[in-house]
UniProtKB/TrEMBL annotation:
Organismal lineage: Bacteria, Bacillati, Bacillota, Bacilli, Bacillales
Protein name: HD domain-containing protein
HD domain sequence ranges: 56-155
InterPro entries (alphabetical): dGTPase-like, HD/PDEase_dom, HD_domain
Residue ranges crossing the lipid bilayer per the database entry: none
Listed Pfam families: HD
Length: 324
């Protein structure tokens, strides 16, 4: 599945809607900063062993199209949606979480300086305003437990491609609106959206996905030590470039880790107890978001919604990884 560009319009097949892009948005679409996201997997290291291959650009365009659909005249919010993920590292959260990077800080840096900043300034936009929007509660995202456009797209896009939802995203989006900063809908649609959240989390936080995250991060750290470079070398890379660096490294440790990650994941063993030589990996964060129904969080109206939130929260675990 992919979005298609035709002159000044962008069609997203997930929602089956076509959005007219503004001139500065088209220029950003054509920039290297945005194009790089086409070569970052939205599904992280899970894309290495599953058929789920959509990119972070696919997700970005989806989020932007949702914002543009419901807030067509809010040009700065549309820009925030378009630029909200440009600071992601290769394989998205996988390496970032383990090695201590912060893609939010990297995103802000790229908005303030570099190619995106030049395009914003050329068209009369202040990058600081866009950064501020990314740090406030907006329909794009928030620090609350309520759902915004960013996670709405992530849940539906991932779950649809996994094959785990009863209604397709284009049907669900017909029944939502925004109440202030948050997605509001009816109980039936809300439960479908929250089921997508559960399906998504079960897939990208599966023990195997978390194990491969940890092994890939270990390979990156070993590479940086062997090559005597700072870990920050990975920040501008794509998935493919990072894999090339790691596969061509002469370090036996890096070679063995990459052999397991890329070619022999069946050798991976996942345990619930620590032991010598086992790599500890953790699920520290989940995205347990809920929609509004009649102005109230759906969990206050539905026991089924409460159970879906519990399922997602239960995935916060620690595993111990080895390979044979």
């Amino acid at each position: 599945m992919q979005q298609t560009f035709c002159q000044e319009t962008v069609y997203d097949p997930l929602y089956r809607h076509e959005i007219k892009a503004l001139p500065h948005e088209l220029e950003l679409f054509q920039s290297k900063t945005l194009r790089r996201l086409k070569f970052l997997s939205h599904y992280g290291t899970a894309s290495l062993y599953s058929p789920i291959m959509h990119s972070r650009l696919d997700h970005t365009i989806g989020v932007w199209s949702v914002i543009a659909r419901f807030f067509p005249n809010d040009k700065e919010l549309r820009l925030a949606a378009l630029l909200h993920d440009i600071g992601h590292l290769p394989f998205s959260h996988a390496v970032e979480k383990t090695l201590g990077f912060n893609h939010h800080a990297n995103t802000e840096k790229l908005i303030r300086e570099g190619e995106a900043a030049r395009i914003l300034k050329k068209h009369g936009y202040d990058g600081e305003h866009i950064v501020a929007l990314l740090n406030e509660n907006t329909p794009l995202t928030s620090k609350t437990s309520l759902l915004g456009a960013d996670h709405f797209d992530s849940f539906l896009r991932d779950a649809y491609l996994v094959g785990g939802i009863a209604k397709e995203p284009w049907e669900l989006i017909q029944n939502i609106r925004f109440s202030g900063d948050f997605v509001e809908t009816d109980i039936e649609t809300g439960l479908h959206i929250m089921e997508a959240m559960v399906v998504d989390h079960n897939a990208f936080l599966s023990p195997l996905a978390i194990a491969i995250d940890g092994l890939l991060a270990k390979a990156v750290a070993a590479y940086a030590k062997h090559q005597e470079v700072k870990l920050s070398f990975i920040e501008p890379l794509t998935n493919y470039e990072l894999i090339y660096h790691l596969q061509t490294c002469e370090s036996p440790e890096v070679k063995e880790l990459m052999n397991v990650v890329l070619w022999e994941p069946h050798r991976i063993c996942i345990h619930e107890t620590p032991a010598k030589e086992r790599l500890q990996v953790e699920v520290k964060k989940v995205y347990d978001k809920e929609v509004l129904v009649g102005g109230r969080p759906i969990s206050t109206l539905s026991e089924e919604a409460q159970e879906k939130l519990r399922k997602v929260k239960s995935l916060q675990k620690t595993y111990y990884v080895s390979y044979q």
